[in-house]
Every structure is written in structure tokens, then in C-alpha cells.
Amino acid sequence: MTSQRTRERLMKRLEEQGISDVALLHAMRSIPRHIFVDEALASRAYEDTALPIGQGQTISQPYIVARMTQALLEGGTPQRVLEIGTGCGYQTAILACLVGEVYSIERIASLLTETRRRLGELKLRNIHLKHGDGYLGWPQHAAYDGILITAAAAEIPPLLLEQLAEGGRLIAPVGPAGAQDLIRLTRTREGYTREVLERASFVPLLGGAA
To answer: CA dist 124 to 110, 127, 160, 161, Å?
Structure first.
């Protein structure tokens, strides 16, 4: 169930759902999703579904990973991307194949330890990981051409908006459980433009570090 054939079946499904970026599809074909889940769930890794990764967190549905990444890439490839919520590192790895540098923050230390090992095995050299509070961002490396938030808040944290470069795009689910929208904010000289991409369902964005 982790064979090339099952991966190709997933790629076909993604294309049918509107994922058309060739480089993105290549990255999702290349990165082995089964290594990012528990061995007991590996046989389900190439289903188009979210799966538990422990600590009350999930690895996002492949379509959602692809949709968020494609929305980030549209309008030009960002060189510097901030990811809030590293989780198991799957989204991080996909981003690393497509952008210049990825700066990723995870609040749960035990998750990050395992993710650091996993990403190290993939030899992706443009990923920078940090244990910390995602609400604060990573101002030392701002401004970012792209920000991707992998958990839902009632509104975008103001400090993250401040760290987005002019012309940069921020992709995030916003809203309470059961009523979330996946949005794209683009920073302009005058302020921000906001687009609703589709409905979404994500775990909540929590503050602090654990």
C-alpha cells in the first residue's frame, strides 16, 4: 500500500481536484508520506485523508496540503516561507522542495524531536526548525514572502501579519470548528486583500509551547 502505484493513484485524484502545478505534483510524488505516520498507519498513507500523528494532532489530507501549497505558489515562487505548525513535517518537506528556505515552528517539543530526525533522513537542507509559540512567528528572519498556518485561529495573529513582506501571501484556515474557511491574504502597499478559497476543517491553533 506504499507502492508507486498507490502514489500515482493519489496524484491522479489530486489532479482531478484541480491541483495543476507540475512542480508541486512532482514534490508530492517524490516525498514518501508513509514515513510521516506511525508504522501501523503506513498502509493508509496514500489515501486522501487526514491521519492521527499523536498529541491530538493530525497529518493533513494530501489534497489540503496540495491546495494550500498551490495557493501559496500562485503569483510567483516565494523564497522565504514561514510555516506555523510543523507537526510531523510532511507539509514542511513539500514546501522545502518548492521554495528557497522554510522556517517552521512547532509548539510541541516531543513532536519536533521526531520530525527533526525524519527531515534529516530526507536530507532537505533548506529547513529551519524551532520549538516555540506560533502566535509570535519568527521575527528574526522576517519579512517572509509566504506564511502558511496549519491550524485554525479565530483571526490571523497580528504578529504574523507584521512579518509578511509586501506582495507576500499568507494561507490559513480561519474560524471556529465546523465553520472554518481556508483563506489567502496578500499584503499590498495599502493593506491586505483577502480571498476565501474553500471550506476547511483543522485542529485549533494554540498559543504557548509544550
So the answer is: 20, 7, 25, 27
Inter-residue contact 87 to 110 (CB < 8 Å): no
Ranges of each domain in the chain: 52-200
> Does the pLDDT at position 1 exceed 60?
no
The CA distance from 99 to 171, in Å, is 15
Residue with cell 493593506: 191
Which pLDDT does position 178 carry in this prediction? 82
How many whole angstroms separate alpha carbon 52 and alpha carbon 50?
7
Q: How many residues does the chain have?
A: 210
pTM of the predicted protein model: 0.94
Query: Tens digits of per-residue pLDDT, 63-78?
Result: 999 999 999 999 899 9
What's the CA gap between 146 and 165, in Å, rounded? 8
Topology (CATH level 3) of domain 52-200 = Rossmann fold (3.40.50)
Catalytic residue among 3, 30, 60, 201: 60
Residues facing 204 on adjacent strands: 152
Active-site annotation holds for 60: yes
